[in-house]
């Protein structure tokens, strides 16, 4: 708030650090001052001053502008000839958006990343989907323009940088699409609950209206969200919506239903543990390993290129989600700082507008949360062995399944008893034969 003195202290600190860094490291990466975002400080914007020196950042973002994924059956804009590229793909605008976010990240993490690409400093992972892979590549183009000996073609201000990926069905961490029967069970249970049923009842008229007009069954909040998203993109691309859609699109009910849909998959803490937990665990474990100086290679930045659902699930798992549709390039940053006493501290930022993000208030811990306390606070959503937890125990079965399980259990018991009995009989007769034999032998 226009505190002149504070401004000068900050500006001087910034210049001081910059000079030290330039003299010590030349073109290498700068040491991280506790206030990052030097430019924002110089511009006198409100900037969080967090305790400690920045050591590590996890960045999780949504892809940029894209095409509708799957237009609805009666869609007047459902013909690809009206669109610049294929369904679900990243557009040129989306490429530009991520290129710019990459430039923004360069400023923010200039002290963690050298100006030349170095695989021992950064790791980029993407879900195995075209638009997230392409977003990751556009992002890296902004983050690492080739310089010096990395310039391989003077006409091309871009260099190839690896983006790692795992097939969606084999990825419980980022895509969160690896099969998990226990999760499916909890979701079905939630949807059958009276709380949820009464919510769906309230939106039944809307869902029926959407089904009748779009030619597609809209039964759940997530179905409604997909349709809302197609209408959203068509509006963005200046395509006139049919009159029936104009009556509901942008209205409070459809918007609420779509926003609410983003909280469904992490609605209970058990669901959050199975859906968002693996990614949170991955991040927190890496912080711990980094702090112990055991991260190999000893990287400083991990970037994850993913989806609106990834953003919503992670925020909700952290109890930081306010129902909304995460926009293109929405970006969560989990940063690790170390204070003068070597205490590791975690801060969470959420950038979903062009404004500089502020640290979020972690429930019961604040903006700068000791790592150990953070792990404690979220213990309920950090899975132990996720694969085992995803298996269905009889506790998580429906009555019919449990009855079936009980029936087969009894059958197995009966077979077991019979086997034991015949085994016992066999041993008995063998012993008898043996003792007869030994008695003969002793006689010899
Ligand atoms: C929203 O839905 C309620 C029923 O749940 C309905 O009464 C209301 O008219 C709807 N609002 C709009 C703007 O359509
Ligand atoms: C749903 O529509 C609203 C506009 O009413 C938009 O702000 C929001 O981003 C849309 N949600 C999705 C998932 O597209
Ligand atoms: C849609 O129209 C607005 C206002 O005329 C314009 O700024 C924008 O570029 C148009 N969008 C597209 C994708 O053509
Ligand atoms: C940005 O995030 C805040 C905090 O979750 C949320 O309240 C707001 O609606 C979001 N805005 C946009 C444009 O996504």
From TrEMBL:
InterPro entries: Acid_Pase_AS, His_Pase_clade-2, His_PPase_superfam, Histidine_acid_phosphatase. GO terms for molecular function: acid phosphatase activity. The keyword Disulfide bond applies. Its EC number is 3.1.3.2. It catalyses: a phosphate monoester + H2O = an alcohol + phosphate. Keywords: Disulfide bond, Glycoprotein, Hydrolase, Membrane, Signal, Transmembrane, Transmembrane helix. The chain crosses the membrane at residues 404-429. The keyword rRNA-binding does not apply. It is an enzyme of class 3 (hydrolase). Residues 1-30 form the signal peptide. Belongs to the histidine acid phosphatase family. This is acid phosphatase.
